[in-house]
Amino acid sequence: MKRLAEFVKERRKEVNLTQEEFAERAGVALTVLRKIEQGKSNLNMDKVNLVLGMFGHELVPGNSKEIAE
């Protein structure tokens, strides 16, 4: 299991996108992506799933800071 922040940041870098570019493509505000990558705990699950959807993943209720690979 990887922390959500690490997962998103690593995957975004793998596709060579800046935070701004990635946020735009995912349909979220830049501040949302920054909060995710900083590991903030008060995140909107719908917004997180928009970001994870870019990688074919989805966060389900439970420990909202971890994602199964």
General description of the model:
With 69 residues, the chain is mostly helical. It has one domain: lambda repressor-like DNA-binding domains (434 Repressor (Amino-terminal Domain)). Helix content is 52%, strand content 6%. The protein has four helices and two strands. It has helices at 4-14, 19-26, 30-37, 45-53; strands at residues 2-3, 66-67. A two-stranded antiparallel sheet has the order 1-2. Helix 2 (19-26) crosses helix 3. The mean pLDDT is 88.
Question: SSE layout and pairings?
Answer:
Blueprint: E1 2-3, H1 4-14, H2 19-26, H3 30-37, H4 45-53, E2 66-67
Antiparallel strand pairs: 1-2
Helix pairs in contact: 2-3
Contiguous low-pLDDT stretches (5 residues minimum) are none
CATH superfamily label: lambda repressor-like DNA-binding domains
State the distance separating the first and last CA atoms. Answer: 7 Å
Considering DSSP H and I runs of 4 or more, what fraction of the residues is helical? 40-55%
H and E order: EHHHHE
CATH architecture: Orthogonal Bundle
SS elements, strand count? 2
How many strands, which pairing sense, and closed or not: the largest β-sheet? 2 strands, antiparallel
- For the biggest β-sheet, the strand order reads 1-2
